[in-house]
Write a structure and sequence with these properties.
With 480 residues, the chain is mainly beta. The relative contact order is 0.14. The protein is built from 4 helices and 32 strands. Strand 22 and strand 23 form a beta hairpin. The structure holds CU-O-CU linkage and copper (II) ion (CU).
């Protein structure tokens, strides 16, 4: 039934009102920047990926790793032509982008699914610079290799760094003889935690290196329902990691994207501290930390000044055993030490929800006109996740009116954490916190976020654990 709500339903264009406010805002952005039209093509298809040892049959946008990097400048018109060569209907959602509602890529809510063999063109203006990503909004397709990064550059930003690396984190299930749909079926029949139990102790190739022990004491209670056999950075297992190179002393901007379906990652770069400059695309008051925790759907931009040598960039699966790895090389000095577990992982760990918004993107002070409280609940047995006690098929939309300041209070009544994501808007964590579109709500805690209702339409609001979302933890936010 969850699948029907997520991917099916009948699309009624009358349900999508015109986007007056956003049109004005994006038109202004277009005039400001002397905007261009950027064209890209996506071809979701069955592929064989070499993960750097394991070779897997899956679905992807590219022959290896994440889909093509799509890059535009704020104010540009982006036109993406999708040719669906998958044996299933699909869709493309532009995670974090404030776009016109009918381009948001949610089958059953904003468009019809793109049928197998079908084509669809997305066309929208990208108003805000930042690090974003794209993925299907169809079932658990995200847990295949169907994701890619969208970078929107700031035409006014002058380069304050020498290099830029894009680092995409993923938890990988496929290639074990099971697909994400099998995992979903197994969760539904057995409940969480038991799924794939034992696989992570099974000594699969590429599982560990240099005796690195990757179980961390979790910051997040209930950190994920699935133990994955592999964790990836840019499509590679730790046994054959990607290498990122620069020169000693150079300042590097790392755009981190957590595209995983059921895994939060604790990220650290051995021998370095990370200065976080942006989260979910928007600037923050910079904070320097040893490590950073990134939930599913979250992004962070960090700046590091590179030392001389070879360093492990590690993403440890929070509360699970396993990690993803990339190797950073600068200069020639010193023996490679990427097999060592970075001590930074166990020092100061920052969560992005605690960051403050940079002044220029802070929401103005204003009392909320409307408060919606969302109780996040569910159970492992049977495996089913709810908002306000009901699964998505049965929830009434959260109603808002254009022009309102809306507060959403995410009240986590469960023992799992939930990275909560709102489409089409960037909220502020209440009380001057960072501008974000995805925020982790830890067990038994409440996180309030404020948004300006400036983009009419129907917008998904859901947990970015794709298995939680697919079994019910979604609701729509609708303008009336
Ligand atoms: Cu990346 Cu509806 O989400
Ligand atoms: Cu969840």
């Amino acid at each position: 039934a969850g699948a029907a709500a997520w991917a099916g339903g009948v699309f009624d264009p009358r349900l999508v009102p015109p986007n007056g406010d956003l049109v004005a805002r994006t038109e202004a952005a277009r005039r400001r920047s002397g905007a261009a039209t950027v064209t890209a093509r996506l071809n979701p298809r069955p592929v064989t990926h070499d993960l750097g040892g394991p070779t897997v049959a899956t679905w992807g946008y590219a022959d290896s790793g994440p889909g093509p990097l799509i890059r535009a400048r704020a104010g540009d018109l982006l036109r993406v032509e999708v040719t669906n060569d998958l044996p299933a209907p699909t869709s493309v959602h532009w995670h974090g982008i404030a776009l016109r509602n009918d381009m948001d890529g949610v089958p059953g809510l904003t468009q019809r699914p793109i049928p197998a063999g079908g084509r669809h063109t997305y066309e929208f203006t990208v108003p805000d610079p930042g690090t974003y990503f794209y993925h299907p909004h169809s079932g658990v397709q995200l847990d295949r290799a169907l994701y890619g990064v969208l970078v929107v550059d700031d035409p006014h930003e002058t380069g304050r760094y020498d290099e830029e690396w894009i680092v995409v984190l993923d938890d990988w299930v496929d290639g074990t003889g099971r697909t994400p749909d099998d995992v979903l079926a197994s969760l539904r029949s057995m409940g969480g935690h038991q799924d794939m139990a034992g696989m992570h102790h099974g000594g699969l190739p590429g599982m560990s290196m240099g005796g690195m022990e990757m179980m961390t004491s979790p910051l997040l209670g209930g950190a994920g329902d699935v133990a994955y056999p592999h964790y990836l950075i840019n499509g590679r297992v730790p046994a054959a990691p990607v290498t990122l190179t620069a020169r000693p002393g150079q300042r590097v901007r790392i755009r981190l994207v957590n595209a995983a379906s059921d895994t939060a990652f604790r990220v650290a770069l051995g021998g370095h501290r990370l200065t976080v400059t942006h989260t979910d695309g928007f600037p923050v008051v910079p904070v320097t930390t040893d490590a950073l925790l990134l939930g599913m759907g979250e992004r962070a931009d960090v700046v590091v000044t590179l030392g001389d040598g070879s360093f492990p960039l590690v993403a440890a699966a929070e509360g699970k055993t396993g990690h993803a790895l990339a190797v950073v090389r600068s200069g020639t000095a010193g023996p490679p030490n990427e097999a060592r577990r970075p001590v930074e992982l166990d020092r100061q760990v920052l969560t992005t929800g605690t960051l403050r918004a940079a002044e220029r993107v802070a929401l103005t002070d204003r009392r909320p006109d409307r408060v919606h409280r969302l109780f996040l609940g569910g159970a492992m047995m049977p495996y089913r996740w709810t908002i306000n006690g009901t699964t998505f098929d049965h929830t009434d939309p959260l109603l808002v009116r254009r022009g309102e300041r809306v507060r959403l209070e995410f009240v986590n009544t469960s023992t799992m954490f939930h990275p909560m994501h709102v489409h089409g808007h960037t909220f502020a964590v209440a009380g001057g916190g960072a501008r974000k579109d995805t925020v982790i709500v830890t067990p038994r805690r409440t996180v309030a976020v404020d948004l300006d209702a400036d983009n009419p339409g129907q917008w998904m609001t859901h947990c970015h654990n794709i298995y939680h979302a697919e079994t019910g933890m979604m609701i729509s936010l609708a303008y009336r």
